[in-house]
Amino acid sequence: MSDWDTVTKIGSKVSGGGSQRETVVRGKGALNEAQRTGAIVGTEKKFATGNAINKAGSEGQRLTKVDRSDDIVAPQKVSGEMGANIRNRRSKEGPYKMTQAQLAQKVNSQANDIKLLESGDAIKNQALLNRVCRVLKLSPKTGLPLDDK
Q: Integer distance in angstroms from the first to the last C-alpha of the chain?
């Protein structure tokens, strides 16, 4: 048989190819089925998908630092100055005077979250911080009042 008589098939319909293709399993049942059949199962957490890739921030850099570090890296916390500014704005007489529970209700959170935020012991949650600053008319970066400018 010469080279002219052999047929080479290229494409996805070719049988007897190399290894199995990698597939993404969605759902617990499909994952269990793959484990029962003896397939190699690997799980990975995807941090950046879709448009999030374009919005690179410092959080990804912090995660890289955590991955490369051998010791425990403490999570970022809200500064004590920011907590003090929130507490002062909330406790002063005027349109922003309210209790921690009332502020928590306005920002759709719990009073304990507000307490930790004001004491400076809260792990930095930018979404909660933005909501609190929007209600109290504070700058999310500095914690200074916006209507004094």
A: 89
Place of tokens 């969605």: 26
31 vs 24: CA distance, rounded Å: 10
Q: Is 22 helix (H, G, I), strand (E, B) or coil?
A: coil
Contacts of residues 134-138 at CB distance under 8 Å and 24 or more positions apart, as own/partner, are 135/96, 135/103, 135/106, 135/107, 136/86, 136/89, 136/90, 136/96, 136/103, 137/89, 137/96, 138/85, 138/86, 138/89
CB 80 within 8 A of CB 116: no
**60, 48 contact by CB (below 8 A):** yes
Rg (CA), the chain: 27
Q: What is the CB neighbour count within 10 angstroms for residue 58?
A: 9
What pLDDT does residue 17 have? 55
Q: What is the pTM of this model?
A: 0.52
Q: What is the mean pLDDT of residues 112-133?
A: 89
